[in-house]
Amino acid sequence: MRQDIITLPDITERSHSHKATAQVFNDPESKKLLEYIKQIAPSEASVLIHGETGTGKELIARQIHEHSHRRHKPFIAVNCGAFSENLVESELFGHEKGAFTGALSSSAGWFEAANGGTLLLDEIGDLSKRIQVKLLRVLQEREVVRLGSRKSIPVNVRVLAATNVNLEQAIIGDQFREDLYYRLNVVTLNIKPLRERKGDILPLAYHFIDKYHAQLGYDKAEFADAAKKKLSSYWWPGNIRELENMIHHALLICQNNLIESDDLTLLKSPSQLNQSKLNEDKPAQPVIDPKLKEVFHSLFQQHEGKVYAQFEDQLLRIAYHYCHQNQVKTAQLLGLSRNVVRSRLIELGELVVSRRGTE
Hints:
The protein is α/β, with parallel strands linked by helices.
């Protein structure tokens, strides 16, 4: 239902276009997730949010914040993959004047900025092992030390982490610290991809129609039944963000304020691509002319007269190669049993039979 939709604040400087800008809790799976969020939000436990890109992990984190005792304090989301190795430490923990070239003044990091509130560390798996060590210390000691300083600053921050990678596999690959993983993973939220919560698709689609109507003045549009079916059956590799882009494009090209099925540009699923590749690689099956089949059949129904003997042999060879050396297809084409075709092909030398194990 449209009233269940939550959206990101209108932050004009937001540059990460892969983020979902809206979330809805209409599908039964989403409703269960919302109830679980309300249950765990009041605690101070760290939460690890896992989901594919574009599923709305930041929006889920904001829901946790809004249902917590910190809701009147800052909520800050930081993309850990957006900073270079040299800058990420300063961004997270702050720096003092002169700590590095270009540090013309002291600056607080994101932990200090979120003091009293909630800090979301998005794409946590992109942090280097060196920064992971420092992050673990901050979580354990509840204090930060700015770059270029020896003074510790107490911080009271609830940390949420989000990732689209399997951190357990990253631990095995020595890319993520196991102790940090368990520190972050007190509570786990697995956000299902859009294809697994179909009840959210149309409410989100209508939300994006309303959004672009309000922002850009597009006319209000409706979906044809075939378009609704197409939306519901699609596999949504880009999740909510892909849906928004698709609706935006459809609004640009649809006629008479009606979004038709052809207005929705969809990507083929891996299974469809594999099937297309198989079809390309598969030899074309022979098209059997009914009249030709009838002639073949009538000829082979003749008695074993010598008049047709040579012609039959040649005809069998032609049919066999016409069917790409497939005995079953040849038998079907000629109206004979496979055993008859097989024995005749052996007699003609077209089919060599291995005799291993028979001697």
